Known about the structure:
The chain has helices spanning 10-17, 89-103, 173-183, 221-227, and strands at 7-8, 25-26, 34-38, 49-51, 56-60, 109-117, 120-137, 140-149, 196-200, 216-220. By secondary structure, the chain is α+β, with helices and mostly antiparallel strands.
Amino acid sequence: MITAGKIISYLEVCQEESVNLQRGMNFHLGSGYSVILMSLRRGAPYADRTEENGQILIYEGHDIPRTDTSQNPKAVDQPMTNPSGSLTQNGLFYQAASKYKETRDKPELIRVYEKIHAGIWVYNGLFKLTDAWQELSKSRKIFKFKLEILDDTTRVNNELREKSPENNRIIPSSVKLEVWKRGKGRCVICGSKDNLHYDHIIPFSKGGSSLVAENIQLLCVRHNLAKRDKIE
């Protein structure tokens, strides 16, 4: 199973999820979780952000589709429903967050993929959807969704177990890109370009930071698994 910090292409993202992902928000794909695509890069179309040292992701909802006859998507409210009355992706995620807030039972689980550069994506891990709201932004209503990263191996309904002890905080996009350029897209040990992961030199569990490039390196899956939480 894919682990947090793995670097992949967009094609590999689609292969991992067994679907051609045509939008950034993908509610309940049928595998017991949802999928979102995000970007923290300058010029990204939506204002996603992280909080609390990467434990929290605040994800912006999406605009109406752009067509030749539609209004400027950035000039109108982000929609809750489609013209037919069915819920948009915004509405589906909002409904799931509202249900969790009311019951505190079985939050929606979300896999998060982040675009860090053209053709370069990273799997940020598994999150739970805990809140959603609407707010004003430049005289229009937009959606905001609060996602909290799952740190342990316990999963809702005991499904999709995942262990990622060294990647339980989001590494900032600027750090990921700096490390990628510094390492020239290769494992620092063997030079492999395949199955790369972002690795904490000093593990997070031993006080290592996710926020500085000096503590992050590229490792292939073989050397990443061999290292685990050892300090070299």
